[in-house]
Amino acid sequence: AEILLLQHRTQQRAPLSLQLSSKLVRIRKREREKTMTKFQSICSLLWSISLLSWSAQAFTTNHHCHFFSVVSIETTSTQCQASTENSDTTSLQSQIDANLALLTKAAETKSEDPDAVYDALAELESQMRKAAKEDEAVAQTTLQNLTGSWRLIFTTGTAKTQQQRGRINYFPIKAVQSFDTTASPMTIENGIYFGNWPALRFSGTMDFDLQKRRLEFDFDGLELLGLLNLQLGQGQAVSLGAKTGLGSESNVANAAKQKSAFFNWISADTNIATARGGGGGLALWKRVEPEDE
Questions:
Q1: Which of 144, 136, 266 shows the shortest CA–CA distance to 214?
Q2: What secondary structure letter does DSSP report for 120?
Q3: pTM score over 0.85
Q4: Which long-range contacts (CB under 8 A, 24 or more apart) does 98-102 make?
Q5: pLDDT, tens digit, for every residue of 200-219?
Q6: CA-to-CA distance for 265 and 140, rounded, in angstroms?
Q7: H or E element: which one contains 41?
Q8: Which helix (H) or strand (E) element contains residue 256?
Q9: Residue 280's closest CA among 292, 264, 257, 256?
């Protein structure tokens, strides 16, 4: 009986022991599952952070490369454009310098081929027109350089003269124009000389249109042989100028329309000046000192 009682108690304890063991297993399993869940969450978080960091780095790198690529392209483009503009400017200036050199030599020697002088004047007119559009200071510099006395060296004559007698080329007699752009109003003189003696000299006032580089003038005085001074009425100066060769007949027509005679100025520097007259002729002057007039 005692043995049977002992076996019964043992059988009762066994299920309890098994229950406790089973419960402990479940608890440990749940703890492991929680731990794994936390571990997975942490891993996921670390992976996300790593992914964001990589993306940010990739974006920054790509953006950095793209930025410098754009800057490089824009810089290269700007440099190329600047280089082209500088090249064009340099080329234009070199062409101007070449024509000025030939015209300066012609003014000094009167030995340059007339056709070459004419071509240089025509080319310079076009080149200086372009230079004046690119740089407003060109017109102002031309005006400032005009002050002084200039001897007419070469002229093609007016369009009508060229049709009748061909180009006049090197001017055969001494004709001198003088300008004072510092006076108010600005003044102009134009005369024919026998040596240093003024046979005929007109005087008057002038205006200069910087935008067009046009010099408009009106003579109101005439000096004969350095002895006789006359006041001229409207249209008288241009009429006498056309007859003496100092002006063109187109000036007479302009005066009848109440318009001033004019020169479209091409250039003026320390040595020479160039212009196209109202009659259409091209002209080259050489700077002279007053005692050389």
A1: 266
A2: H
A3: no
A4: 99/123, 99/124, 99/127, 100/124, 100/267, 100/269, 100/272
A5: 899 999 999 999 999 999 88
A6: 12
A7: helix 2-109
A8: helix 249-256
A9: 264
- The helix/strand/coil state of 227 is coil
DSSP letters of 116-162? HHHHHHHHHHHHHHHHHHH-THHHHHHHHHH-EEEEEEEE---HHHH
Cα gap 62→53, rounded to integer Å? 14
**Structure tokens that stand for 173 in this block:** 């007699």
Q: Dihedral sign, CA of 163, 107, 103, 274?
A: negative
Largest CA distance in the chain: 177
For residues 203 and 223, is the Cβ–Cβ distance under 8 A?
Answer: yes
The rounded distance, in Å, linking the Cα atoms of 162 and 157 is: 6
User: Pairing between strand 148-155 and 197-209?
Assistant: unpaired
Chain centroid to CA 227? 50
Tell whether omega for the bond before 114 is within 30 degrees of 0, i.e. cis: no
**Distance, CA of 110 to CA of 154 (rounded, Å):** 8
Indicate the pairing of strand 174-180 with strand 186-194.
antiparallel
- Can you tell me the mean pLDDT for 136-159? 91
User: Average pLDDT in the 63-82 region?
Assistant: 41
pLDDT exceeds 80 at position 76 = no
User: Which residues lie below 8 Å from residue 23, measured CB to CB, with a gap of 6+?
Assistant: none
Q: What is the mean pLDDT of residues 66-84?
A: 42
The answer to whether 283 and 122 are in contact (CB under 8 A) is no
